[in-house]
Amino acid sequence: MNNVPEHFGSMVFNDSVMKERLPKEIYKSLRSTIDNGTELDISVANIVANAMKDWAISKGATHFTHWFQPMTGITAEKHDSFISPQSDGRVIMEFSGKELVRGEPDASSFPSGGIRNTFEARGYTAWDPTSYAFIKDGSLYIPTAFCSYSGEVLDKKTPLLRSMEVINAQALRILKLFGDKVSTRVISTVGAEQEYFLIDKKLFDRRKDLIFTGRTLFGAKAPKGQELEDHYFGAIKPRISAYMKDLDEQLWALGILAKTKHNEVAPAQHELAPIFSTANVATDHNHLTMELMKRTADRHGLACLLHEKPFAGVNGSGKHNNWALSTNSGKNLFDPGKTPYENKQFLLFLCAVIKAVDDNQDLLRISVASAGNDHRLGANEAPPAIVSIFLGEELTGILEAIESGKEYTKVDAGKMMTGVQVLPDFHKDTTDRNRTSPFAFTGNKFEFRMLGSSFSISGPNIILNTIVGDVLGQFADRLEKASDFETELMALIKECISKHKRIIFNGNNYSAEWVEEAERRGLLNLKNTVDALPLFKSEKNVKLFTKHKIFTKTEIESRYEILIENYCKVLNIEALTMAEMVKKEILPAVFSYSRELAETVSLKKSIGIDIQDDAGVGLVSLLTKLANCLSRRVSELEDSLIAAYGINSILARAQFFRDTVASCMTEVRAVADELETIVASKYWPFPTYSDLLFNI
Ligand code: ADP
Ligand code: MG
Predict the structure, then answer these.
(1) One domain, residues 544 and 571
(2) Ligand 1 in contact with 193 (CB < 6 A)?
(3) How many domains does the chain divide into?
(4) Average pLDDT of the residues of the chain
(5) Residue 273 Cβ contacting ligand 1 at under 6 Å
């Protein structure tokens, strides 16, 4: 690729294309819709639609699709061609403003968590003009929001856009108090670092567990894991490098700011990070990134695994959600500046986050809860399930000084002397990066590290925007009434620190001591999805979401249902896959190998060889013992599934899956993995961890 700037965004109907292809007045009107959320006139939409169509056709597109994010967690699309029949039997290419701004996909087959039963099946998609349309596979993609006929929200985008409005409105109130006269909009910005595994496609295809569940349900440890720490940032292999190059080029064409790529800690694990953008655009882009990662892998004979825990015993994959607030005048509200101690506005925004996170640990935890992520959180490779904030030495020192009313004296972290002439010495980062923290302040943004790799980042950002927006609103209520702003401001900051400092923790989040300490501090420790989800419906949360019009009570109930049902479905699919693999693949392999051994033994015996201490005899009897055990355990697993189906309450069923079905699965796996270590390779029915992790 020799001209990246020209290639970048070449498939996007972005600002420069709009400027070039739209009449000036129309452009201005659309721009105002994008920047200020003003309503779009249908006559304007008609002209925009026509320009979009002409542009799309010039790029080879024949179809358009509304592109939306239903509660499945992935994206959905339905393609219509631009053709419109004429009386003389020919067709012309048409695309109207109405088709651009509204679509009517059938909503009946998307998860609605019970909403569907009471309302009409029809759904609507509505254009989100703040996320640019783009071309992929010969279709013009129009990013949209998705709701039911009667207005219930059925997607992950609408609440995100609403939450962005909440934080915008509340943050502006605060800025006004500080005398900011230039900012008219506050935008939440997000950069999502994406982890993933790449394995050989031919091997992937031979594993039913990977195909059906995205993770390995069996697999003995390979002799080598990640213990030599030789993969992280290691040289990228040519085949992977070719894949990454291809992926970058496709992402760039779609205007996605793919920036950083490197090998991760586990073998076969990698990471891609974009440059941050507006929260809703970052969400759209992360969806596209995940989709293209999978598809590009296919083209390179690879399979891309986005599951949170594809392999036991090596690190799983997460997603780091970097989040900040920026004004339309270009100022990052979390930039502490050179003297954070004197930067009261920064300190107030910082306090808002501290209070929001402390008051809403439950919501942040829920926003990252899934069956897949349960394998990671708290497993000493990812943050624990306990939510806390890392602030670093300097900020913590400042807050302590304010609370105790003392002068703050800067701790000089000192220069890091590289000792090499040609390398510059640099200041030790006082926000020393604590990789174990679930929610870390990293210089001028917060990094929420609990997300699973396969997640839509929408959920966590809805929560972040809403909870911080809500607290900013509370602060504004109080400060707007104050007779003396400065005095009230300092009182508020001080009060906030004393009340919420328990959420700040700069130490090692993986340690056992922290779990105890967190309990003493009264912090929540919601160990798994089933523990976390019910809190979504609590009175506090219903009040919060309805107050800000993010979700109605019905929508909260329905989302809870969808999430908890999804948990049961995932475990059910895993259990069924496991049983099938044991019965159709593992046991038959063990029997074949046993037969070969037994035949050899009897042959030896028939020609008079002493088989008293024969290795084959011992092995056959061990194989038989283990096979019998495996067979019993699979029956127990199947019985547990039948019992699960009989439980009516969805919460009780989820608990049963978590406690009983999951432990039956662990038992099955233990025996199968032991068998893997003694069955001859040529009999073992699917690729092992050594094959999967070290073959590229
Ligand atoms: P690390 O892997 O050490 O956490 P990276 O540089 O890989 O750091 O990733 C940092 C991410 O944070 C990038 O996606 C970057 O664009 C994003 N980021 C930087 N500044 C902001 C900001 N103001 N708002 C949101 N995201 C940001
Ligand atoms: Mg990171």
Answers:
(1) no
(2) yes
(3) 3
(4) 93
(5) yes
Is the CB of 320 within 6 Å of ligand 1? yes
Tens of pLDDT along 210-230? Answer: 999 999 999 999 888 788 878
Q: How far is CA 336 from CA 431, 443, 494, 502, 535, in A?
A: 11, 8, 18, 22, 34
- Whether 680 is in the pocket of ligand 1, judged by its Cβ within 6 Å, is no
pTM of the complete model beyond 0.90: yes
Instruction: Decide if 558 is inside a domain.
Output: no
Which structure tokens are listed for 168?
């915008």
CATH classification of the domain holding 664: 1.20.120.1560
Does residue 579 lie in a domain region?
Answer: yes
What is the token pair recorded at 156?
């992950």
- Give the domain range for residue 39: 4-155
pLDDT in tens, 44-78: 999 999 999 999 999 999 999 999 999 888 999 99
Using CA positions, which residue lies closest to atom 5 of ligand 1? Answer: 273
* 591 and 461 fall within a common domain: no
Separation CA 128–CA 156 (nearest Å): 13
Residue 418: inside a domain: no
pLDDT above 70: residue 500: yes
**Is the beta carbon of 434 within 6 A of some atom in ligand 1?**
no
φ, ψ dihedrals at 222, nearest 5°? -75, 155
670 and 541 inside one domain? no
How far is ligand 2, taken at its centre, from the CA of residue 168, in Å?
25
Which atom of ligand 1 is nearest to 273's Cα? 14
Contact 358, 196 (CB under 8 A): no
Verify whether ligand 1 is closer than 6 Å to residue 624 (CB atom): no
**Quick one: pLDDT band at residue 432, thresholds 50, 70, 90?**
low
Domain of 148: which CATH number? Answer: 3.10.20.70
Give the atom of ligand 1 at the shortest distance from the alpha carbon of 320: 4
Task: With beta carbons less than 8 A apart as the criterion, state whether 110 and 70 touch.
Answer: yes
